[in-house]
Amino acid sequence: MTASWTIVVPSVRLAENSSRLGTEARRLTRAIALDTVAAIAAARLVEQIIVINDEPDATDAFTALSPNVTVVPAEKDTETLDIPAVVHSVTGVADGPVVVVRPILPALDSVAVSSMLDGAESVDFGVLEDFHGRSGTTALIAKHATRLGAFPTTLKIERPAGAQLLGLSATLHKSATSARDIAHLRSEPSLGARTRVAAAALLLELPTKESGRRYGIDPPPQN
Q1: In whole angstroms, what is the distance from residue 174 CA to residue 104 CA?
Q2: pLDDT band per the 50, 70, 90 thresholds, residue 208
Q3: Are 141 and 127 in contact, with CB atoms under 8 Å apart?
């Protein structure tokens, strides 16, 4: 395959939508997003990475990852993103191949991204689901950007109608939206350096009747 791809990473409302990581988990959610983008930037066949970002103080950190990264500001109160319009505004291409990747894949590796793009030419519209089957999708692949249309800014993305379910490398499926996810991913050799540092400050507590969840964070990471 020789086609080059535009990768869109909607880094929007991360702290709000990752509340299971703790209400003060901004540093951790940002580290995960940066590691996700860094893995994409190191992959083959990636021509352009567009990060849609609603935290202005994170812009420099994203653009420092690669000269191929462009940050597009997003309004704080927006509910959907017009992905084709955003791609066209940055690349000038009206309907080229696009992959939307959720910024919650701290163990993503560039080999997995390259493998996905190698096999994506024959995919008209495809979806990768979360490894645990509880957090929606982790990526959408579209040979034509117009197939994506309005994209929700919430982290959980349900499988779109008509999308082909793809089975690819595990690191493309392993999202981190809870303390339990971080606990499981700590042993992953491909876990991003930024996430590893941010997660090192977390103390994962055992389940309690009061917590109502398997893991909690105590204390929460500091911004």
Answers
A1: 8
A2: low
A3: yes
Tell me the two tokens of residue 79: 């509910």
- Distance from C-alpha of 127 to C-alpha of 31, rounded to nearest angstrom: 24
Q: How far is CA 205 from the centre of its chain?
A: 26
Q: Give me the percent of the chain exceeding a pLDDT of 70.
A: 75
**Do 167 and 112 contact (CB within 8 A), yes or no?**
no
Least Cα distance to 40 among 14, 66, 3, 59 occurs for: 66
* 142 φ/ψ angles, rounded to the nearest 5 degrees: -135, 125
Residue 212 has pLDDT above 50, yes or no: no
Phi, psi angles (nearest 5°) of residue 57: -75, -5
More confident position, 207 or 199: 199
Look up residue 102 and give its two tokens: 């959720």
The pLDDT assigned to 136 comes to 73
Tokens of 70: 């462009």
**Contact between 86 and 9 (Cβ < 8 Å):** no
Q: What is the pTM of this model?
A: 0.86
199 token code pair:
């997660």
CA angle 202, 42, 157 (to 5 degrees): 60
